[in-house]
Each structure stands twice: as structure tokens, then as C-alpha cells.
Amino acid sequence: MPRSLWRGAVSFGLIFVPVDLFTASKENALPLHLLDSRDFAPVGYQRMNKSTGKEVDWGHIVKGYEFKKGQYVALSEADFKHANVKASETIAVDTFCDLAEVPPMYFHTPYYLAPGKGGQKVYTLLRKSLLTTGKAAVGTFVMRQRQHLCLIVPSAQNLMLITLRFADEIQPFAQVKRAKSIDEPSAAELSTAKRLVQGMSGAFKPERFKDTYRADLRRRIQEKIRRNQIHTLEVSTATKSERPTAQVLDLMSALKKSLQLKSARA
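User: That's the sequence. What structure does it adopt?
Assistant: C-alpha cells below.
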């Protein structure tokens, strides 16, 4: 069984649910390394003391806050923990809301919540309460010296915890460059587009989707190994592809052709 990342309790009202937190995602990126293009030697990450120029062992590294130029307050693990003991040991539920009320841009990282020692009954009570009411729990907790906003959501067998971004971590859309004017579609175009959306609708099946780019890159790596091209850099000969534009000369025609393609594949 994997090691828990955090151990504490979910608190709501006077109820405490002992829980363990486990990661629910993993990275599948290819393990690429930084190399010096002159001799293809690995480029390492060194922890250098800026005063002496010498490498510092992890055992001598602490975190510090620069309160004035060149002056720091050093912080130990005890400082982080005792800054707010309750926040470090509990997921404090503030609100129960509908999951659909949380905008997608707030979602961050998923985790599994497992019942802690002696907490199976109250864990099941919380999970079934959320399932039957259709609600998710909104709360906060501290992990790895940082406070997180989070959602606790139920599934058929367990509870999930999803960390959320705080409101001040979301960039307002007003800062995004937008077109000065919006060309509204006609009623006929909108009706046809809705038919296309309905025709392409279906259940969410993530297992249908594969990381084909990673597989293609792995094949290219294997091909370079086969050709003994292990210390050569290839000059890009790929032609720059034309980016598709939103300016379709005949939007209605494109919509109708899309519907026809969908019908032919069905």
C-alpha cells in the first residue's frame, strides 16, 4: 500500500472523520534530462552557497523569509507546524455546495481520502451523506507548509479530495486580449451548431484517449538509437503548418458538412 501524504481528520460541526490522504494522479512524461549541446554531458542542479560558492548538503538547508535586503528569518519544521496546529491537522469544512457551482478553472489536483484508524463508520456516514444530498464539502487544510482550498466529493466506494486554487490565484478574464467586437452567429447557424453538438454528445470515457504524442516521441527516440544517432542534433526540416483560423468563408456550409461526416461515421 502506498504511503499517505497527509494524516489528520475532516471536521464539520462537531464531527471528526480520521483520514489518510493519498495521491490520485501520476505523471507519464518521458524522463528527459538537460544536456550540454557541446559534449552531451548531463547538466546537473547544484545547491550552491552564494557566499562561498560551495555545494550545500541537504541536511544544512533550511527555509527563510527575506524581511529586508540580505536579512532573513529562518523557519524550522516546528515553526511551520505550530503556526496553526489545528489547520495542520484537520480539513476544516466550511460549506456544503453543489459540485456544478465550482468553476472548472479552480480545480487543481485530485487525491484519495481513505478512512483512518477507527474512522470507517463516520467516514461512510460522510460519504453517504454527500451522495444522497448531491453535495460536495468545501474546506481548507495545510499540507507541505502551504494552506489549500479543497473539495471533498463522494464516489460509489470512497471519498476524493480535490485541491482548488484560491480566488486571488485566478486571472480575471478582463486581462485577456479580446476582439473589439463580436460577430454574432445567425439563428440558423446556431441551430445547426446545436445539432452538431447533440450529434457528437456521449458519455465521458477517459480510457478512449491516449497520449499519442508521447508514444510517437518514444518511437522517434528508438529510431535514433537504432540508427546510432545518439550524439547528433537534427536541424528542423518540418514545414511550419498553417494555423486554422476562425474565419470560415461559409460557416453554414462547414457546419452542414460536419453533420454529414458525423452521420456517415455513425
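The domain at 6-26+81-169 is CATH 2.40.290.10 (Ku70; Chain: A; Domain 2).
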